[in-house]
């Protein structure tokens, strides 16, 4: 695969929740316009790591971070870093679809609006483009003002992706985005990820190894807070170098 | 389910090894039949053809089923991919055994040339190569196949010398033309079996190490 410049670089990243160390010495690079998957058994630190990338861990009082995390060469943990602009640049989609208790339209318009866009025509345009990019437009264009809660689980998840796209992020973090979805909705999200990577960088945490193998270009295997192995997805799944990785991907533990 | 998968994968390897033993035995027995003009033994070899096909089909089916049900990764995936190739090579080797048995059958009544030139020696080496490939496959270790390229060179050289010896014998005594033509054919089959054993060793090497090699 052609090398793409890196958009996220972590160097000797360590993270503690109080006394407990959750990430140990993580050094990795995430390439731009590629899908990077993080896999590993429960509690290995993969969700913690993905949350580092948009400083979601700030919400936990006892959390302490050491080492550097550069996004576009900017240290996002620098005291002067602007968390709001980081989170605009780095969007996130969660395990369970979590639309706001508002209409489909308002869910997507919410972000641009708080970022200062008020003009109706412009908001309409953003809503349509975002919903189209999230492969949801055709299914909701006639019910934009219905409550988002009335959509199916898969549609709600794509709405959350549209909501994330509406503020024009560069990076989209996905924390097990399909684990609450049926196989058809899952396939739609996987197709969507493949399209999204043309314009965005995607980092996805998944428990489903076949999903990681299908959607990602790079895979990192984590265990007990360490990044055990990182490389091109085909290599990680076909001939991993580390025995721990081999044991995990063949289901011998985890 | 993971344990069930691994026990089924072990079964798949067992069946492949069983097929390997059958193929190698068909080849070995066909040469024994050639040497001793034993038509019953030749008939036995020919009758094994159907068993070979049955094993080939059932192993392929099991391999595909395991892939569909468990989506194996890493070495497990390589084992299944290797198995699918290995059974093809084993089928070819077994069929050459059958073809030699057919030659024995057709040539019954022709006086053999005692010693069969270098054919018995070729057979020993080729069967040893097949066994080495099967051993590596069974034990997940490449030590038995490391020198297989050299053994194949030896087989090629023996094929050439058998060919030359047959030409010389035919020139000397035209009555030997039918039987020597058969020997050339048989030696050629053995030489091909050596090549299949090498291809098999390449696949097993990939299964064990994840590295692809080419045996010259």
Report on this model:
The complex is a heterodimer of chains A (254) and B (216). Chain A is an alpha/beta fold and 254 residues long. Chain A has helices spanning 46-52, 83-89, 104-114, 120-133, 137-140, 153-165, 183-196, 209-215, 233-238, 243-249, and strands at 6-17, 20-31, 35-39, 63-71, 74-75, 90-93, 171-175, 201-205, 218-223, 226-232. Chain A is globular and about 55 Å long. By secondary structure, chain B is mostly helical. In chain B, helix 5 (119-139) runs parallel beside helix 7 (177-209) and helix 6 runs antiparallel to helix 7 (177-209). Chain A binds chain B through residues 209-210, 213, 237-240, 245-246, 249-252, and chain B through 2, 5-6, 71-78, 210-211.
In short, what is this structure?
The complex is a heterodimer of chains A (254) and B (216). Chain A is α/β, with parallel strands linked by helices and 254 residues long.
- Overall, the morphology of chain A is globular
Summarize model confidence as the mean pLDDT of chain A.
Answer: 94
As a whole number of angstroms, the C-alpha radius of gyration of chain B is 19 Å
What is the string of SSEs of chain B from the N terminus onward? HHHHHHH
Strand residues, percent of chain A: 25-35%
Helix-strand category of chain B = mainly alpha
Task: Give the low-pLDDT segments of chain B.
Answer: none
Query: How far apart, in Å, are the first and last alpha carbons of chain A?
Result: 30 Å
Q: Choose one word for the global shape of chain B.
A: elongated
Low-confidence stretches of chain A: none
Oligomer: heterodimer
Mean pLDDT of chain B: 96
- Strand portion of chain B: under 5%
- Count the strands of chain A? 10
Number of helices of chain A: 10
Largest β sheet strand count, sense and barrel closure of chain A? 6 strands, mixed
Look at the helices and sheets of chain A and give the structural class: alpha/beta
Separate helix tally of chain B: 7
Helix content of chain B: over 70%
Spatial order of the strands forming the largest sheet of chain A: 6-7-8-3-9-10
């Amino acid at each position: 695969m052609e090398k793409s410049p890196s958009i996220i670089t972590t160097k000797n990243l360590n993270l503690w929740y109080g006394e407990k160390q959750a990430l140990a010495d993580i050094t990795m690079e995430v390439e731009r316009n590629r899908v990077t998957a993080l896999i590993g058994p429960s509690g290995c630190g993969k969700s913690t790591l993905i949350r580092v990338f948009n400083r979601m861990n700030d919400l936990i009082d006892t959390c302490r971070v050491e080492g550097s995390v550069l996004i576009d060469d900017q240290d996002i943990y620098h005291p002067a870093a602007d968390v709001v602009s980081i989170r605009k640049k780095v969007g996130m989609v969660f395990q369970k679809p979590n639309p706001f208790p508002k209409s489909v339209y308002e869910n997507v318009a919410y972000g641009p609006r708080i970022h200062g866009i008020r003009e109706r025509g412009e908001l309409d345009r953003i809503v349509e483009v975002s919903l189209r990019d999230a492969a949801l437009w055709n299914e909701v264009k006639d019910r934009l003002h219905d409550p988002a809660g009335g959509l199916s689980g898969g549609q709600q998840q794509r709405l959350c992706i549209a909501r994330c796209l509406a503020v024009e992020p560069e990076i989209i973090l996905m924390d097990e985005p399909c684990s609450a979805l049926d196989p058809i909705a899952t396939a739609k999200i996987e197709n969507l990820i493949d399209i999204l990577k043309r314009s965005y960088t995607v980092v996805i945490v998944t428990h489903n190894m076949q999903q990681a193998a299908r959607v990602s270009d790079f895979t990192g295997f984590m265990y007990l807070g360490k990044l055990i192995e990182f490389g091109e997805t085909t290599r990680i799944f076909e001939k991993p170098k580390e025995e721990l990785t081999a044991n995990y991907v063949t289901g011998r533990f985890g | 389910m993971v344990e069930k998968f691994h026990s089924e994968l072990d079964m798949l390897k067992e069946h492949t090894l069983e097929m390997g033993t059958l193929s190698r035995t068909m080849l070995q027995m066909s040469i024994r039949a050639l040497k001793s003009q034993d038509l019953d033994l030749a008939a036995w070899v020919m009758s094994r053809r159907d068993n070979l096909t049955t094993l080939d089909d059932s192993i392929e089916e099991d391999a595909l089923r395991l892939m569909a049900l468990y989506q194996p990764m890493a070495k497990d995936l390589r084992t299944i991919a290797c198995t699918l190739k290995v059974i093809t090579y084993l089928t070819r080797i077994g069929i050459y055994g059958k073809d030699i048995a057919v030659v024995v059958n057709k040539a019954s009544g022709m006086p053999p040339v005692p010693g069969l030139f270098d054919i018995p020696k070729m057979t020993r080496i080729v069967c040893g190569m097949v066994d080495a490939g099967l051993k590596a496959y069974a034990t997940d270790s490449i030590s038995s196949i490391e020198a297989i390229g050299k053994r194949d060179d030896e087989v090629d050289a023996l094929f050439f010398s058998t060919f030359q010896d047959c030409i010389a014998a035919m020139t000397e005594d035209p009555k030997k033309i039918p039987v020597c033509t058969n020997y050339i054919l048989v030696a050629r089959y053995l030489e091909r079996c050596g090549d299949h054993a090498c291809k098999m060793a390449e696949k097993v090497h990939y299964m064990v190490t994840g590295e692809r090699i080419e045996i010259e």
